[in-house]
Design brief:
The complex is a heterotrimer of chains A (314), B (304) and C (564). Chain A is mainly α. In chain A, 74% of the residues lie in helices and 0% in strands. In chain A, helix 1 runs antiparallel to helix 13 (274-302), helix 5 (90-125) packs across helix 8 and helix 8 runs antiparallel to helix 11 (238-256). Classes of the chains: A mainly alpha (314), B mainly alpha (304), C alpha/beta (564). Chain C: Its main location: membrane.
Chain lengths: 314, 304, 564
């Protein structure tokens, strides 16, 4: 067991290291000295000493492999370089922008989970086949909807038509309602699709027929037998959902003009702020790897089949 | 022994198959049967409609002039922000350009972009997956770890990074979207190859003296590509969505170009006055993506 | 051999109201928007304490009838007409909610496949307790005690431990015992046993059927036993109902049906069932005296096959020091239950596995020394036919392409020559030329297996390895394929290596036999010698477990047939 854990952690670290290296090669090594030249831009107002500091932190005057090692060491100690645009350390930018996105993402994710679970379970529990089919088709509609368009539509309907949420100076909660809804819809769609596929599959399993033969009602079967078997495998798409969450945050923050990691990403791309982008890439790869690692390590706790691997032959 | 246990299911399959042939004259006898036949047709109706949507959009892309006499890029003075009317079915934008014309002319942008994106993902991803699945061993390990790395970076972030490298623009955005699709194509292709390789008929082909390349060509490739093709159709819809997202964020086609995502981005400044500018292009995107997904589903069903 | 218990005088205990009475039942399935009737006008009854066997091949409607009886038809299934009376009450029109109150308590189910019939994420105890909870039979500790009692009753050792375990920690036989415990928990009037042992090894099958018999005797429960195996039906039932294409062909007391079948179909089933049939297809070709080495098509010496388990670098010995020889033109059977190493042995002989040690000589060629091109050339000598004809043919090829393909792999032949060869071999295996343009999915299981045999024979090999090649087929189809194999052997002088779990089939077709158990050879010799004087306790157990031996006259007929 512990051997598996160590192996799995090692694999995660390798992926993380490779992601870092790829981003280094793509973003930093190829343009050569291009980043550093940008710091000479007088608009940033950096003095020669600060520029010298920045050059030193990148080890700009040493060969490429040394720069690479240097950058790794920097990343490991939490120094992600300097923003070309703002002239401040990237870590400061990340820290400043993390909290609003964290709130948005947390609420969006929770709403998405609630949406996905209700849609998928309602779609098997409803008595009328037509209603079931209707709920069954919701996720494919959600998945085909452009997130940015949905956000604009929500603003149009709730702020301009119904005037429920003020456009100018909304309250601290009001400001979050539409973005959270916008973010939740695209996240809930793949979740609901996976859930429905699993539910449909589990419902055809012979143990469901056995439970019915015991006298269990449809509802009892769904809650006591289908639910756990269908929900467990959805854990494995946790990492992918994180990526969706980040992409959703980029678009949502752009539509609603919010500050956060998403708008930071967008600005970094627009102004070709490579140091920020590299930090974001490494940061999100780390989050992805961490989520998948956690899911893999936690899975055996929920699924007894993976718990006892010792002594099991073939 | 496994064959014996499936009696219940094979019964259904077998009888359905036998009875299907004689179904034509039977259905005319039973009223209930006839009602059910119409229901079966209505299920296929969605698929037919999907093909129609795609056909229309393809025609838009190929021959925009057939559908509109207005220009997609040049506006008419003093016709700004007109509501939908008989002259401008979908109204005009802030520069007096006909919205319908811009949507029709934009089809070629979205479709060609999606083609490039899916093409990149399909070709590179499937090639990697095929090599990994058939070579196995160390090669497999290296390729699949590379795929893991690609997967570990969120798709939007990855495509944004590539856009930075290549520069903004329609083709570059499409390539960037395609690169993010490589990983999933590679994974699918590999798992299909591994599945087909493990089948009895592939072993039988080796057992009757087939060389590796012949078995690969005759059995493994044709049988693993079916679901890859179905997946490509699914990715087509996804690529249209993602490209429009990049367009909306401003990294795709440059402004006068009538790209669908860009249309929505330009229209959002007028949501209070001209709702049609954002709503309609979004609905078009939804329709096209839904249709592509529905069609890919029908491919998936053929496989079994 | 008294494998059946207490069914010699059933009438004494029978009351007048049948536990189950099905009258003129018609069931249809809806697919592609149309109803297809699969059960027509089926009537039968099961009296308390009685076992009625519902016998038929795939597509006969036996499982559908059983599912209708317990109200658990598939989503698209519907009872069109007829009555289903449980203890005199017609339940055919009942809504699911009302059926829920009697399922598990008055009528229960023993399912087909114990592996997938238990919820993998719930403990055994929870799943047995569930039936008591649903029907509100006691609470908390009471239920716990009853669960342990039930698990002990169905013969599980350490019931307290079992209750805490998960399904994957139990063997197939143990899981089926758990499912039986669930079925008997509330002492229902009727148990529907749907192929309860088809997925189990033959020795386990016997123990499970014994347990069902014993419990039925103890509780006086009626049992509707759905089975494809006429031998099982013969051993275990009071009465037999024979179904074909959804219609009852014949029904009556088991002894009468077996002794004097009235319908042609039943007669055919009886003659084709290997365990009940009229004996061998073939006259033994094993002559006395030890033949010269050159006479051996296959020589296996001290074969050992180890597999490396990825976890903890352990090795697993699948085949442990096996030796045997096969004379040219004869059939040698390798018999064993799952995990005996029989398939591994077969794969080593055809060159798919490299043995860990030992020597294999096929037609004078040392297989263990082959690799690359020489191994490819060797394929012309020996061919393998797989168990599942649904998986062994490429679904995208036409039948012509399937059979032609081996010819393309060796010395190039002109197209006309290939067409001629394919047509000739198709004729040999008894298929019409019309199938050549079709794809495998348009063929029945038996036809597909003929195609697989044709593909194996088109290279004119000397030896054919048949890996459970008839196990997935219905008995009548199985009999046809066995007859075909015999014809081919006589016409072409083939040597067969016949891998099977089914001793009855082995007895019909093979000349010599090796019995494997846990990778070791436990018995060998001419097939009748092994059957008459089993050399090991395991072989004796295997032979005793063959279903269909209840009636002495049947056994005699088998023996007479054998000596004819």
């Amino acid at each position: 067991m512990s051997r598996y854990v160590i192996g799995r952690i090692g694999q995660a670290l390798v992926v993380l290291w490779a992601a870092f290296t790829v981003s280094f090669i793509l973003l930093q090594a190829l343009p050569g000295d291009a980043i550093l030249i940008k710091f000479l831009n007088p608009e940033l107002g950096l003095g020669p000493e600060q520029i010298a500091d920045i050059r030193a932190s990148y080890a700009a005057d040493t060969p490429l492999w040394s720069q690479y090692l240097h950058t790794i060491a920097n990343f490991l100690t939490g120094r992600f370089g300097y923003s070309v645009q703002a002239g401040v350390p990237v870590s400061a930018l990340l820290l400043a922008n993390l909290p609003p996105t964290l709130w948005l993402a947390t609420f969006g994710f929770l709403l998405a989970v609630i949406l996905a679970i209700s849609i998928s379970f309602v779609s098997v529990l409803l008595p009328l086949p037509r209603l079931r089919a209707f709920f069954h088709s919701i996720p494919s509609l959600f998945i085909s909807t452009p997130v940015f368009w949905l956000g604009i539509l929500l603003i149009q309907v709730f702020s301009f038509q119904l005037k429920l949420i003020p456009v100018i100076s909304p309250g601290p909660w009001e400001v979050l309602v539409l973005p959270v809804l916008t973010l939740a819809v695209p996240i809930s769609a793949p979740l609901a699709q996976v859930l429905m596929r699993n539910i449909d599959h589990v419902l055809t399993e012979p143990f469901v027929a056995v439970a019915r033969a015991k006298g269990a009602s449809h509802g009892w079967v769904v809650w006591k037998h289908v639910a756990k078997n269908a929900v467990l495998p959805t854990l494995t798409i946790g990492g992918i959902l994180f990526g969706e969450l980040l992409a959703g945050a980029v678009v949502t923050e752009a539509v609603f003009g919010l500050n956060g990691i998403g708008s930071l990403t967008q600005h970094a791309v627009s102004s070709q702020d490579i140091a920020v982008l590299q930090a974001l890439v490494v940061f999100s790869a780390a989050a992805f790897v961490l989520i998948n690692l956690t899911v893999d390590l936690l899975y055996p706790i929920f699924d007894p089949r993976l718990r006892i691997q010792k002594g099991a032959v073939a | 022994m496994s064959g014996i246990n499936t009696t219940g299911r094979s019964l259904l399959r077998g009888d359905a198959g036998i009875l299907e042939n004689s179904s034509s004259f039977r259905s005319s006898l039973a009223l209930a049967g006839a009602r059910l036949v119409t229901k079966a047709r209505s299920i296929q109706l969605g698929l037919v409609a999907s093909w129609c949507v795609i056909a229309v959009v393809v025609l838009w892309a190929l021959f925009p002039a057939w559908f509109t006499s207005h220009s997609g890029t040049v506006g008419v003075a003093r016709q700004q922000l007109r509501a939908p009317s008989t002259e401008h079915w979908l109204g005009t934008d802030a520069l007096g350009r006909d919205l319908l014309a811009r949507i029709i002319h934009g089809a070629s942008q979205s479709l060609s972009g999606a083609f490039v994106a899916v093409g990149v993902g399909l070709l590179v991803g499937t090639a990697l997956g095929l090599i990994a699945g058939s070579a196995r061993g160390r090669m497999d390990g290296v390729i699949m770890r590379g795929v893991d790395v690609l997967l570990s970076i969120p798709q939007l972030l990855l495509s944004l990074s590539i856009v930075i490298l290549l520069g903004f623009g329609t083709v570059n955005a499409a390539i960037a979207v395609g690169v993010t699709a490589i990983a999933s194509f590679a994974r699918l292709a590999r798992s299909e190859v591994v599945r087909v390789r493990a089948s009895d008929y592939v072993e039988a082909a080796f057992g009757s003296g087939g060389t590796f390349s012949r078995v690969l060509w005759r059995h493994i490739l044709p049988n693993s590509l079916t679901s890859v093709i179905a997946f490509a159709a699914l990715q087509f819809g996804w690529a249209i969505l993602t490209i429009s997202t990049l367009g909306f964020l401003g990294y795709g086609a440059p402004p006068p170009t009538p790209e669908w995502g860009l249309l929505i981005a330009e229209g959002r400044n007028y949501i209070a006055r001209a709702w049609w500018l954002t709503t309609v292009p979004g609905l078009v995107v939804i329709l096209v993506v839904l249709s592509a997904n529905r069609i890919s589903q029908s491919f998936g069903k053929v496989r079994t | 051999m008294s494998t059946a218990l207490n069914i010699n005088s059933p009438t004494s205990r029978l009351s007048n109201v049948p536990a189950l009475e099905i009258g003129n039942l018609a069931v249809s399935y809806r697919s592609h928007g149309e109803d297809h009737r699969v059960v027509h006008d089926v009537s039968l009854e099961v009296r308390p304490g009685e076992v009625v066997a519902l016998v038929g091949e795939s597509g006969s409607g036996k499982t559908t009838t059983a599912q209708a009886a317990i109200g658990l038809l598939a989503q698209n299934g519907r009872v069109e007409s007829g009555s289903i009376r449980l203890n005199g009450t017609d339940i055919s029109g009942w809504p699911q909610k009302r059926l829920d109150s009697i399922r598990g308590s008055k009528i229960s189910l023993i399912p087909q496949d114990p592996t997938s019939s238990l919820n993998p994420v719930k403990t055994i105890g929870e799943q047995v307790a569930e039936v008591l909870q649903i029907h509100r039979q006691g609470r908390g500790t009471e239920i716990e005690a009853r669960v342990i009692e039930l698990l002990a009753r169905v013969g599980l050792s350490q019931p307290e431990l079992r209750a805490k375990q998960y399904p994957h920690e139990l063997s197939g036989g143990m899981r089926q015992r758990v499912l039986i415990a669930i079925a008997i928990a509330l002492k229902p009037a009727l148990i529907i046993a749907d192929e309860p042992t088809s997925a189990l090894d033959v020795t386990v099958q016997k123990r499970i059927l014994d347990l069902i018999d014993e419990l039925r005797d103890e509780y006086g429960t009626a049992v509707l036993l759905v089975t494809h195996d006429l031998g099982v039906a013969a051993d275990r039932s009071n009465r037999i109902v024979v179904l074909k294409n959804g219609r009852v062909q014949e029904q009556g007391p088991t002894d009468e049906v077996l002794a004097a079948p009235r319908s042609d179909y039943t007669r055919k089933l009886l003659s084709d069932a290997p365990s009940l049939g009229k004996g061998r297809y073939v006259i033994s070709r094993v002559k006395d005296g030890s033949p010269a080495d050159a006479d051996h098509a296959v020589i296996v010496e001290n074969l050992v096959q180890d597999f490396h388990l990825s976890a903890r670098r352990a090795t697993f010995r699948a085949v442990d020091d096996i030796s045997f020889t096969v004379r040219r033109g004869t059939t040698h059977a390798i018999v064993g239950e799952s995990g005996s190493g029989k398939t591994t042995t077969a794969r080593s002989i055809v060159g798919f596995n490299k043995p860990s040690s030992g020597r294999i000589v096929v037609d004078g060629i040392d297989v263990t020394s082959l690799s690359g091109e020489s191994l490819r050339r060797f394929r012309k000598t020996i061919q393998l036919v797989y168990q599942n004809p649904f998986a062994s043919l490429d679904p995208r090829q036409t039948i012509f392409q399937v059979i032609e393909e081996p010819l393309l792999n060796f010395d190039p032949l002109p197209r006309e020559e290939r067409v001629r060869k394919v047509e000739a071999i198709l004729d040999r295996v008894g298929l019409p030329q019309a199938v050549l343009a079709r794809k495998p999915h348009a063929l029945s299981g038996g036809q597909r297996q003929r195609v697989a045999i044709a593909r194996a024979l088109v290279l004119e090999p000397k030896i054919l390895v048949l890996d459970e090649a008839v196990s997935a087929l219905d008995v009548t189809v199985q009999a046809q394929i066995l007859r075909l194999l015999d014809e081919l052997q006589q016409a072409l002088g083939l040597t067969y290596l016949f891998i099977s779990h089914d001793l009855a089939v082995v007895r019909q077709i093979s000349d010599t036999v090796s019995v494997l158990h846990n990778g070791r050879l436990v018995d060998e010799g001419p097939v009748e010698d092994v059957f008459q004087n089993p050399g090991s306790a395991y072989t004796r157990e295997l032979i005793a477990a063959i279903p269909g031996q209840r009636n002495a006259f049947l056994e005699n007929s088998v023996l007479n047939g054998a000596s004819q």
